[in-house]
Amino acid sequence: MAEQHPSAPARALSLVRRSAGGVTHVRERHPNRYTIVGNHLTQHRELSLTAIGLAAHIQSLPDGAPVDIRTLAERFPEGRERIAAALRELEAYGYLERVRERTSDGRVVTRTYAYNHPEATRTRRARESQPVQPVRESQPVQPVREPQPAPPPTRHTPEPEPEPGPAPAPVAATAPTPAAAAILATLRRDDDRLLLSERDVRRLAPAVAAWLERGAAPDAVRRTLSANLPPDLRHPAAFLAHRLTALLPSPLPAAPAPSPRSVVVPLRNCNGCDRAFRSPTPGARCRDCRHAAAPAAA
Question: Which CATH architecture has domain 34-124?
Answer without folding.
Answer: Orthogonal Bundle (1.10)
